[in-house]
Amino acid sequence: MRLGACYAPHMASDSYHEPYEALTVPTKDLHRAIVSLMEELEAIDWYQQRADVCADDELRAVLVHNKNEEIEHAMMNLEWIRRNSPEFDDNIRTYLNSTGPITEVEEAQPTAARNGSGPSSPAKAAPASSAARSTTAGSLGIGSLKEG
């Protein structure tokens, strides 16, 4: 099989980078959710651009309405991802609804909260199943690159 080929031509997304058959069900589901989130964000962008240049007020209102529906869909996808990925959950809890400069939010947290322990850390939502935890168990540790 050639590099970059779609491993699952029957799937809506052709962006699998590893053999489809070798992926776990939780990884496939997370992929579906991420691709769906990307598609919703793209639709939001398109509707916003169309509304910006639309000369007809009624059509602009329809486009803005459609954009807002896509935002709802995107947030539903993001919430599913948060509930099923402890790493997403930790980062969402750190950055969303924070105040101050975004790049300084993590540094402003007490050490125990950054490590996901201690009384100052928010309660973690349990993943839907132990299988959901396996989606990220093989993390590449990319987050550690920003510590250097």
Description:
The chain has 148 residues and is mostly helical. It has one domain (20-137). Helices cover 53% and strands 0% of the residues. The protein has helices spanning 25-53, 57-84, 86-95, 105-108, 111-114, 130-133. Helix 1 runs antiparallel to helix 2 and helix 2 (57-84) packs across helix 3. The relative contact order is 0.11. Residues 1-11 and 118-148 have low confidence and may be disordered.
Compact summary:
The protein is mainly α.
Number of strands: 0
Strand content bin? under 5%
Spell the H/E element sequence. Answer: HHHHHH
Domain count: 1
List keywords for this structure.
single chain; mainly alpha; flat; disordered N terminus; disordered C terminus
List the helices and strands and how they pair.
Layout (H helix, E strand, L loop, with lengths): L24 H29 L3 H28 L1 H10 L9 H4 L2 H4 L15 H4 L15
